[in-house]
From TrEMBL:
Domain of life, source organism: Bacteria
Upper taxonomic lineage: Bacteria, Pseudomonadati, Pseudomonadota, Alphaproteobacteria, Rhodobacterales
Cross-referenced CDD domains: pCLME (cd01597)
Name by which UniProt lists this protein: Adenylosuccinate lyase family protein
Gene Ontology molecular function terms on file: lyase activity
Organism: Sedimentitalea xiamensis
Length: 447
């Protein structure tokens, strides 16, 4: 097996990444760092920190030169960071020593790496958002179509009371909708430029480092943090946390769908693949299982990343290296989950016959709560609950439907009306429609 499923040709279709995978390659990282070096030089040239003609030469070269990642392996191993080797290779490729001497002027490796990382994270969030919108489109359609489709709600894996399939879909979609709503603020607060120099003091960045940082932020269309965040990894943690919560929300969808497709329940059909190598009758819940696996793995990586946010002094190599190991896996996990969940949400369908059978099965005891409240209208509720518990025990022992026992012992209660799932769904249909309306509005550009 490959070192990472996200780098595997064999598992590429099982763990789909779309275009996000391109952003987490050596070549993409080098390209982003060169873009930052070029934009920085241009901003410095405009302020007279470096010669204007050198600034233009550096900015132009940053768009043109190609640097082989393999050539940076040795200096990266020696220095513990890739930028010294990158800067040296860039100067060499420029073939203009008079201009090249101003490459990487006054900054530190972390400024370049962190800013370049933000450029790639910005693209990743945009791509993940597109896939998230596709997921929500499918879920909104399902919720609206099946707002009134009754099914058994389950707590602790057992039948609880009736709900609607649309409301269950809404419970999957609402956290995703919240995550979509969070994106504008996340981008504003977390996609930040880093420009603070060797120890965060900006001592070699000219007479107005704050102005230079603002210029660089504007040139790269990133936010200006107005300070050094070398050891404050909050911007990275916010983005990683958003990605983790996305995979967890999609993992919840996967967990429920996998359970609802299992033998003996089969209340949902998936569409698509999932064949067994030896059992022709099976359609394995592959994508739901993938979503659960990604949620578990991403949550674990996030725990490690939280620990890595504790930096010592003004830069901490071990903490920073740990971030490099975890952050790509977290973002790629979110990207893979969002990619896979779109087709899943589009292909999901309820088996309404199976759902109806579940509501009438188990001797109708799913309606026990409604019966207890009906009896509570005539007597104290503790007494009503005790009566219903006794009736449920008798139903189990005698295998007689609860409705028949109600007709025998409480003929004044209309058992047919009371045991109607439509009567007991409460706010479930409204919840389904509320989610569908909210999702439709946001996907159309509303709030």
């Amino acid at each position: 097996m490959a070192a990472s499923v996200f780098d595997s040709t064999l598992y590429a279709r099982l763990f789909p990444l779309g275009e996000v995978g391109r952003l987490f390659s050596d070549s993409a990282e080098i390209r982003a760092m060169l873009l930052v070096e070029g934009a920085l030089a241009r901003a410095q040239g405009a302020r007279g920190i470096i010669p204007a003609d050198s600034a233009e030469a550096i900015a132009r070269a940053a768009m043109e030169v190609q640097i082989d990642p393999a050539k940076l392996a040795a200096p990266t191993g020696e220095n513990g960071v890739c930028v010294p080797g990158l800067a040296a290779a860039f100067r060499h490729e420029m073939q203009a020593p008079d201009h090249a001497q101003y490459v990487h002027w006054g900054v530190t490796s972390q400024d370049i790496i962190d800013t370049a990382q933000m450029l790639r994270l910005r693209q990743a969030l945009a791509l993940i958002e597109t896939d998230l919108r596709a997921v929500l489109t499918g879920l909104a359609r399902l919720a609206r179509t099946h707002a009134e489709t009754p099914m058994a709600a389950r707590t602790y894996g057992q039948h609880a009371t009736p709900t609607s399939f649309g409301a269950v879909v809404a419970s999957w979609g609402d956290p995703l909708l919240d995550l979509l709503r969070e994106l504008p603020a996340l981008r504003e607060t977390s996609l930040l430029v880093s420009l603070a120099g060797a120890a965060g003091t900006a001592s070699e960045l000219g007479p107005d480092p704050a102005g230079l940082r603002a210029d660089l932020a504007a040139a790269l269309n990133l936010g200006d943090p107005r300070r050094s965040w070398h050891t404050d990894r909050t911007p990275v943690l916010r983005i990683a946390d958003w990605c983790t919560r996305l995979t967890l929300a999609l993992g919840k969808l996967g967990e429920d769908v996998a359970a609802l497709t299992q033998t003996g329940i089969s209340e949902i059909t998936l569409g698509g693949a999932g064949a067994s190598s030896t059992m022709p009758q099976k359609q394995n819940p592959v994508v739901p299982s993938l979503l659960v696996a990604l949620a578990r793995a991403t949550a674990g990586q996030m725990a490690v990343l939280n620990g890595a946010a504790l930096h010592r002094y003004q830069r901490d190599g071990a903490a920073w290296f740990t971030e490099w190991m975890c952050l790509p896996q977290i973002v790629l996990g979110a990207a893979s989950a969002a990619q896979a969940a779109g087709p899943l949400s589009a292909g999901l369908a309820p088996d309404t016959g199976r759902m109806a059978a579940a509501l009438t099965g188990e001797l109708g005891m799913i309606h026990a709560e409604a019966l207890s409240f009906a009896l509570a209208a005539q007597r104290p509720r503790p007494e009503a609950q005790a009566l219903v518990k006794a009736l449920c025990r008798e139903a189990r022992d005698s295998r007689m439907p609860l409705a028949d026992l109600v007709r025998r012992d409480h003929p004044d209660i209309d058992a047919a009306a009371l045991f109607s799932p439509a009567r007991q769904m409460g706010e479930a249909p409204a919840e389904a429609r509320r989610f569908a309306d909210s999702a439709t509005a946001i996907l159309a550009g509303g709030t």
